[in-house]
Amino acid sequence: MGPRGLARFEASIDPQWIEQALAFTGKASIRRRKLPADMVVWLIVGMALFRDRSIVNVVEHLGLVAPGVESLAPSAIPPARARLGVEPMEWLFRRFAQEYSASPQLPKFGDLEVYGIDGSHLRVQDSDDNFTFFGKPGGRGGAGDAGYPQARIAVLLNLRSRLLADASFGPFGTSEQALARDLVSSIPDHSITVLDRGFVDFKLFDAITNSGTQRHLMVRLRANQKFEGLELLPDGTALVNIRPHKDTRRAHPELPDSIQGRVVAYQHEGGKPCRLFVTMTDWEAYPAADLVELYHERWELEVGYDELKTHMFERNECLRSLSPQNVIQELWGLLLVYNLVRREMLLVAEQHGLPPTRVSFRTAVLTVRDFWLISAWGAPGRVPRFLKDLRMTLGGLIIPPRRSERRYPRHVKIKMSNYKRNRGTRSRAGPK
C-alpha cells in the first residue's frame, strides 16, 4: 500500500487500483528506484492534501522512498514525476469516480440521479512552457495580458453527494462547451444533467439526450433563445422544439432536426424572468414547481469549486507545477483527494442520517490532514483507533441546514490596484 501514514484511504483506494493504473498505462517501475512509481502516486496525493508544504517536505514526512533508502536528493523528484506522467493519475481518478460517484443511497429526483456540469479556470505558474501551452486571458493591455497563464476545467458533479464523476482540462482558449462534451460519456443512465445558460449548445444537448437510456437535461435558456412552440400544457409549461442554428446544421448535418422538451417560465421575487428547458415532457410526473426547485441545486457546483479553489488550495496563488504535463498530473491528484475527502463526509453523513452537504468540508479537510500527521509517525496498530476517532470527530462537525431564503446582492469589495504592472521580459501578445 505504501507508508502507513496514507493507510487512512485504504478503504477507499484499493491497493490493486494503483498497481493496475501503473500496469495499464505502462508506468510501473521495472528496475529498483529510490522513488518507485507507486510512491510517486502517493506523492501527488500528498501534494494535494498538504498545500502548505514543499514537495520535498511531503516526501520526507510521508517516507515516500523505497525500503532501506534513508534519504532522497531533491533533484530526483522531478524526473520521478516525469516518468509517472499523467495517465496513471487520470486512470486512478476515473476508477475511483466510477466506483463511488453514484449515490443510490441518496434521494433521487423522481427516478433520476441528479448531476451537473459547469466550468471554471485555474491559475498555473507563469513558466514559459505553461504560457505557451495554456495561454492567458485578456487584461488591461489586451489579449494575453493577464498576470498568470490559466487552465480551463469542466467537471461532472453528482449534485446530491457532491462527488466528482469526471473532469476535463484544456488551455484557457478552449471553450467550456467543448470540454463539457468530453464528459458526456460519463453521465449515467436514468439521470438528469443540470446546465447553466452558458452551456446552451445543440451539439451538447444531442450528445446528452440521444445516447444512453433515459438521460435528460435541464438548462436555463438565454433571454434571446428561440424555439418552436407546440402546445401549452395544463401546468403552465409549454411543449417546444429546439432546433440547431443554421451554421451548426451546415457544419454537422448528422444532428437531428430538433430536440423536444418543455419550457418552464418563472420569476423569483425581486429577480428577473427566467426560462428553463427540460427534456422531461411528462408534466404530471415532473411538476413545474419541482423543476424550478431542482434547477437551483446547480449551486452545488459553485460550492464545489469554492471548496476546491479556496479550502483545498489554501488560497495559494496558483498550482505548483512548471510544465503542462505536471500541471495536469497535479490536477488529477487534487480532484482525487477532493473525492476522497467527500467520500469520508458521505460516510459520516450516512452514520448520522443527514445529507452529505451538512458536513463541513473545510473542517473535514483539516481533520484528515491531522490524521495523516499523527498516523505517519504512529504504530500501524493504532490506525483502527485513529479511523474511529476521525469519524467521531467529523460527526461533531455537522453544520446547520442551508437557509435558502437568504439573498446576497453582489458588491465590489476589491478594486484593481493603482500600482504599475510588472510585465516582465516575455512578450504579452499570447500564444498563437
Description:
This protein is α+β, with helices and mostly antiparallel strands and 432 residues long. The protein has 14 helices and 9 strands. The protein has helices at residues 15-24, 37-49, 55-62, 77-84, 87-100, 128-134, 176-181, 202-209, 246-251, 288-295, 299-312, 324-352, 361-375, 383-395; strands at 113-123, 150-158, 164-171, 191-195, 215-220, 228-232, 238-242, 259-266, 274-278. A hairpin with a 5-residue loop joins β2 and β3.
Tags for this model:
single chain, disordered N terminus, alpha+beta, 432 residues, 37% helix, 14 helices
Summary of the model, kept short:
The protein is built from 14 helices and nine strands. The protein is an alpha+beta fold.
